[in-house]
Amino acid sequence: MKAKEIREMTQKELNEQLSSIKEELFNLRFQQATGQLENPLRINEIKKDYARVKTILRQRELEAKEA
């Protein structure tokens, strides 16, 4: 997911995206622990998406405080 795509989302969509990313990360970690993970690089991708969403949320929070 690109940062540009994330910035176009609404606050509600971002929160929903964040919860789905958390859930997917949990599932991937569970698969890794049980030895069923097919694509280990997917964990890194999901972590980066999580960080991007959190960063955009924080930027919006700071912008709201300034205004």
CATH topology: Helix Hairpins
Mean pLDDT over the full residue set: 95
Cα-to-Cα separation, first versus last residue: 28 Å
User: Can you give the helix content as a percent range?
Assistant: over 70%
Count of beta strands: 0
Domain count, please report it. Answer: 1
Alpha plus pi helix count: 3
Radius of gyration: 14 Å
Q: Secondary-structure element sequence?
A: HHH
Beta strand %? under 5%
- CATH top level label: Mainly Alpha
Give the overall silhouette.
elongated
Structural class: mainly alpha
Describe the protein in words.
The chain is mostly helical and 67 residues long. It has a single domain (3-66), classed as Helix Hairpins (Orthogonal Bundle). Helices cover 82% and strands 0% of the residues. The protein contains three helices and no strands. The chain has helices at residues 3-7, 11-34, 41-66. The longest helix is centred in the last third of the chain and has 26 residues, at 41-66. It is elongated. The relative contact order is 0.16.
Keywords:
67 residues, single chain, elongated, mainly alpha
Briefly characterize the structure.
The protein is mainly α and 67 residues long. 82% of the residues lie in helices and 0% in strands. It has helices at residues 3-7, 11-34, 41-66.
